[in-house]
Amino acid sequence: MPLLSNPNAFADYPLDKAGFRRRDAQWLADALQHEASQLALMRNLQPFCNEEGTVWFAGAARDALCGSEALTIFLGVDTEGRPHFAAEMKRDPADSVIADMGAFEDMRAAAGRLPDREVAMLGCAKTLLEWHARHMFCANCGGASVIVDGGWKRECPACKAEHFPRVDPVVIMLPVLGDRCCVGRQARFPRGMFSALAGFVEPGESLEEACAREVLEEVGLVATNVRYHSTQPWPFPHSLMIGLFADVADGPFTLDPEEIDEAIWLTREEARGALTGGVTLADGRRIFVPPPMAIAHQLVKAWVQTG
Ligand SMILES: [Zn+2]
Asked: How far is the CA of 150 from the centre of ligand 1 (A)?
């Protein structure tokens, strides 16, 4: 039941998170033992997959595979009533019965090939498992905190503080001037790759202000209007990418050398080529934009289609 048409990988979460039920520890324990429960395994934040997709185990197998103390996330219940979980496996899989059933796979690689609904679930599981690994102690008193609510909260037994999973908002925008859009590249990008501009939202900022600030800081252009496109949960480690178009006033590029190596304007025809395998610019260089898994790709694609 999609709320909106969202083209982004990791979006369109397919499960009912059962927010009221997951507060009940007995209900969660029963759900894990449910005869139709589905358990994904993760090790070093990588999902266990085979050629077809995620390898799902019965929830009741969790203790034998990972141990009863394994960090376990309740992902939600699907439309057929099957509870879904993800558990962290610390044991060496080579010594396990799963050794011949698949492999732990890099999340970006998995996201590029697995079914959309599995990408959304596994991305969510990665974000939560990583948050737990980095937030074992109470930010208020320094005491050890404990996992509750199926992994959607931590509590501090000493001072009773509650800690919720972190989400970092990031604006990612395509500056647009008439029939051209602006893309930039960072030194760390693969050779020839250009992308949308992006930056973290800072305290005290609206999304529009964050967008205008980043466009000015990174390429020296003044945003005159900001339009929303879509958002993308991005589990590296816990961002929410907020995709925008920024109409900008004409002017020369003034680059932030720490952020941007180069910025260029693309026509729609050039952008169309950059989306599909790459395009050769007038100066003879071959350039391209990120793959469809990235919201930057979807922003450029949507802009091309409006022309
Ligand atoms: Zn505390």
From this structure: 20
Ligand 1 center to 156 CA (angstroms): 5
Task: Look at strands 168-177 and 180-185 and give their pairing.
Answer: antiparallel
Q: Which residues surround ligand 1, an ion (CB under 5 A)?
A: 138, 140-141, 143, 156, 158-159, 161
Q: Please determine whether the domains at 21-134 and 168-305 fall in the same fold group of CATH.
A: yes
Distance 66 CA to ligand 1 centre (A): 28
Domain ranges within the chain, ordered by starting residue:
21-134, 137-165, 168-305
Per the CB < 8 A criterion, the answer to whether 193 and 185 are in contact is yes
Any idea which residue has 């500056």 for tokens? 175
48 close to 98: Cβ distance less than 8 angstroms? yes
* pTM of structure: 0.94
Provide the terminal-to-terminal Cα distance of the chain, rounded to the nearest Å: 30
For the structural domain made of 21-134, what CATH number should be given?
3.90.79
Pull the structure tokens for residue 299.
């922003």
Residue 144 CA, ligand 1 centroid: distance in Å:
7
Distance 141 CA to ligand 1 centre (A): 4
Q: How close is the Cα of 162 to the center of ligand 1, in Å?
A: 8
- DSSP for 42-67 reads EETTEEEE-SSSBPPB-GGGHHHHH-
Q: What is the pLDDT at residue 4?
A: 61
**CATH architecture designation of domain 168-305:** Alpha-Beta Complex (3.90)
CA–centroid distance, 142 to ligand 1, in Å, is 6
How does pLDDT run across 185-224, given as a tens digit for each residue? 999 999 999 999 999 999 999 999 999 999 999 999 999 9
Given a contact cutoff of 8 angstroms between Cβ atoms, the answer to whether 246 and 257 are in contact is no
* 171 neighbors 244 (Cβ within 8 angstroms): yes
